[in-house]
Amino acid sequence: MRGATLHVHDERSGQPVVVKLVAISVGEPREARWRGRTTTTSIFKSPVTHRVRVARDNIEGDRQSDLSVHGGVDKAVYAYPAEHYAFWRGELPGEALPWGSFGENFTTEGLLEDDVAIGDRFRIGSAELVVTQPRMPCYKLAIRFGRTDVVKRFLESHRSGFYLAVAQEGECGAGDAIERVSRDERGLSVRDVVALYAADAANASLLERASEHPVLPAAWREHFRRRRWKPDG
Q1: Long-range contacts of 181-186, Cβ-Cβ distance < 8 Å, separation of 24 or more
Q2: What is the pLDDT of residue 65?
Q3: Burial code of 200-221, b = ≥16 C-beta within 10 A, e = fewer?
Q4: Closest by Cα among 60, 42, 43 to 51
Q5: 96-128: per-residue pLDDT in tens?
Q6: Across-strand partners of 78?
Q7: Nearest by Cα to 35 from 146, 149, 153
Q8: pLDDT tens digit sequence for 127-170
Q9: Following CA atoms 33, 34, 40, 43 in sequence, which dihedral angle do they give, to the nearest 10 degrees?
Q10: Of the given ranges (56-60, 89-93, 183-187, 194-198), which has the lowest mean pLDDT?
Q11: Closest CA to 125 of 72, 71, 77, 183
């Protein structure tokens, strides 16, 4: 099934906005000091101007430093909405915040967490990608900004972005339109998953859907299964 270029409407103007790839950012592992020790991180990304190859495990020019928690087929590409940058400029005054500041590979326009579902499939350039999970921040984000509070603030903001698996290898570049090839019929949004993780287990129906979703990685499903049997409180 061939998708169509997505259009959404700006909340203020009501005008249609084309959904597109704003920027592509990549980075290699580098050493950084954190709390008195040296660690290796790939959180520092820089935008590129050329088209890149999108492979099963990462994109051209990008490499993860710790494959036990980053990268792999379920986290081949990390996407983050450009719309969130205005919020973070208010939260983090003095930070320059170029594209890629949150460690994302793809900075997108028109794709927000409440309208992107686990299992949704998108075409960007000649590559096709499937949404697998939200991004849960770790201390590497604190390294990027040099402050410990940013991890908690990132989680509480529900501005998580999302990881993509590569269903079809190809190439893409900044400015490419994003097409939704298919929408997952289960309708479990990225924001739903973040809310379940960050809040209590009162929404039993949503918790069940998350724990049984075949695209959500096994570790997530197991987490939500345990929550079904041991709800908070």
Answers
A1: 181/1, 181/2, 181/3, 181/121, 181/122, 181/123, 181/128, 182/1, 182/3, 182/120, 182/121, 183/117, 183/120, 184/117, 184/118, 184/119, 184/120, 184/121, 184/131, 184/215, 186/117, 186/118, 186/119, 186/213
A2: 61
A3: ebeeeebbebbbebebbbeebb
A4: 60
A5: 999 999 999 999 999 999 999 999 999 999 999
A6: 163
A7: 146
A8: 999 999 999 999 999 999 999 999 999 999 999 999 999 999 99
A9: -110
A10: 194-198
A11: 77
Single-letter residue type at 35: R
* The pLDDT of residue 231 is above 80: no
Q: Are 148 and 176 in contact (CB under 8 A)?
A: no
CATH code for the domain defined by 4-184: 2.40.33.20
